[in-house]
């Protein structure tokens, strides 16, 4: 019998823990160079879209931080093709550390590593991944926790949750956070070869960052785009059914401004580290035709600059992957990062000059 398409719902009860600060000893792939003084909202309640085809791995949604806006924004969950046969996705997570919330980026690798004990759902229940497994060069999906239709590589395996109730808290440690520590297998996974988020993932969270409706202050923890079948395809997206918990904006939002961590202090190294390309306000010279022409030129430059950033980021991502495959030594990696930083600074300088020239023409 043909299975009728459906959407599985990740809907758990919020449980707030009242424990002290958790001292983390993680082996996460990469720590983004920011920390925030107030924690991210709870994970929203949403449905998983149907898997678009074989080889796609579910990457759960999460709250990211926009330094320019001083607010969290939701990066929708989505299906992504694995970059290599046998690779799985370790989700990013927030953790309380040294009096602030610190972000640890996700990565691809042979095994799923530590992701803070966060219960993202759909196979990510705090540790490991129960949504599927590789058998040779083919990925098999566990239909009991993932939404797959018209995919032949499937099996049914009941996932037993040891907790009576599962919470939607989106960070590890600290006041009210999840109290989980890395397991020995998580430490082993941290030392394996890793691949950073692939190009379509960077495009996906860039699209999320530029969507004002995905900011926590706008959607109150209930994003209108909670999940997508493919990265950055927001038009046919699935909205959140509910916020994971009542949204309480921080009393002092200005106090939530992020600070650079030692790993990423100084100039941007990669295009993804740069602030978003800024559109200027619409011109109002009194000449409608002139204002319209100026705005069209601005949009053209904006699109070109976004394309240039994506192209350079893709090139640098490929170089990172090549170094990982070749097990490059630390000296080679440092040289590559220095070259990437120089490329990114040159790009930023060129784009700033372009914007300045446009401003001068407006006068």
Quick tags:
single chain; about 375 residues; alpha+beta; 2 domains; 5 helices; 19 strands; globular; disordered N terminus
Secondary structure elements and pairings:
Elements: E1 9-10, E2 30-36, E3 46-47, E4 56-59, E5 62-66, E6 71-75, E7 77-81, E8 88-90, E9 93-97, E10 100-105, E11 107-109, E12 119-121, E13 124-125, E14 132-135, E15 138-142, E16 154-155, E17 171-172, H1 184-190, H2 199-209, H3 216-219, E18 227-228, E19 259-260, H4 288-325, H5 330-362
Parallel strand pairs: 7-18, 9-17, 15-16
Antiparallel strand pairs: 1-3, 2-10, 2-19, 4-7, 5-6, 8-11, 9-10, 12-13, 14-15
Helix pairs in contact: 4-5
Describe the structure in your own words:
This protein has helices at 184-190, 199-209, 216-219, 288-325, 330-362, and strands at residues 9-10, 30-36, 46-47, 56-59, 62-66, 71-75, 77-81, 88-90, 93-97, 100-105, 107-109, 119-121, 124-125, 132-135, 138-142, 154-155, 171-172, 227-228, 259-260. It is α+β, with helices and mostly antiparallel strands. The protein has two domains: 9-263, no CATH class; 266-362, no CATH class. Strand 12 (119-121) and strand 13 (124-125) form a beta hairpin. The longest helix has 38 residues, at 288-325. The model is unreliable at 1-32 and 259-266 (pLDDT under 50).
């Amino acid at each position: 019998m043909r299975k009728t398409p459906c959407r599985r719902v990740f809907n758990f009860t919020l449980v707030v823990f009242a424990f002290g600060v958790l001292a983390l000893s993680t082996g996460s792939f990469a720590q983004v160079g920011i920390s925030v003084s107030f924690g991210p909202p709870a994970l929203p309640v949403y449905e998983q879209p149907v898997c678009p085809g074989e080889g796609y791995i579910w990457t759960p949604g999460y709250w990211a931080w926009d330094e320019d806006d001083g607010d969290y924004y939701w990066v929708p969950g989505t299906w992504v093709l694995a970059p290599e046969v046998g690779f799985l996705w370790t989700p990013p997570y927030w953790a309380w550390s040294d009096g602030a919330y610190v972000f640890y980026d996700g990565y691809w690798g042979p095994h799923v590593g530590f992701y803070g004990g966060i219960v993202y759902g759909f196979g990510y229940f705090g540790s490991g991944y129960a949504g599927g497994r590789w058998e040779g060069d083919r990925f098999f999906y566990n239909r009991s926790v993932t939404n797959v239709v018209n995919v032949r590589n499937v099996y049914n395996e009941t996932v037993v949750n040891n907790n009576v109730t599962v919470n939607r808290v989106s960070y590890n440690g600290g006041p009210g956070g999840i109290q989980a520590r890395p397991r020995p297998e998580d430490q082993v996974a941290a030392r394996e070869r890793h691949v950073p988020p692939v190009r379509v993932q960077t495009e996906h969270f860039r699209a999320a960052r530029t969507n004002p409706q995905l900011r926590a202050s706008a959607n109150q923890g209930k994003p209108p785009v909670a999940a997508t079948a493919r990265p950055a395809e927001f038009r046919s997206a699935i909205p959140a059914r509910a916020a994971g918990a009542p949204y309480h904006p921080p009393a002092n939002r200005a106090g939530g401004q992020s600070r650079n961590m030692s790993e990423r202090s100084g100039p941007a190294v990669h295009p993804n580290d740069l602030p978003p390309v800024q559109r200027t306000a619409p011109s109002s010279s009194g000449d409608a035709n002139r204002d319209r022409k100026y705005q069209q030129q601005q949009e053209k430059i904006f699109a070109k600059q976004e394309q240039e950033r994506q192209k350079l980021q893709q090139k640098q991502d490929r170089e990172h992957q090549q170094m990982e495959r070749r097990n490059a030594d630390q000296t080679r990696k440092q040289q590559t990062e220095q070259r990437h930083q120089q490329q990114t600074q040159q790009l930023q300088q060129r784009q700033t000059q372009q914007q300045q020239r446009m401003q001068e023409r407006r006068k």
